[in-house]
Design brief:
The protein is mainly alpha-helical and 73 residues long. The chain has helices at residues 3-24, 26-36, 38-65. The protein has three helices and no strands. It is elongated, with a radius of gyration of 16 Å.
Length: 73
């Protein structure tokens, strides 16, 4: 395992752990926000799901621009 692979594995583990914590508490967050406004609860849920994918997309863009993307050998 190269240094680059190890860094990618650590970054992915941190991102997935953060997502796990967020989605673990999501039902309580949704109930709290649903008491205020159902539309607010839906909007926050959609943003959380989109943010999960956006983090990996942004990380991929960063790696491509800095010359250590997946297509680099």
């Amino acid at each position: 395992m190269t240094r680059n692979d190890r860094a990618s594995a650590i970054a992915t583990a941190i991102i997935l752990a953060g997502a796990f914590v967020l989605f673990y508490f999501m039902p309580q967050i949704m109930l709290f926000l649903g008491a205020i406004s159902p539309w607010l609860a839906i909007a926050i849920a959609v943003l959380c799901v989109l943010a999960f994918f956006a983090v990996f997309w942004l990380r991929g863009l960063y790696r491509q621009r800095h010359g250590n993307g997946p297509d680099q050998v």
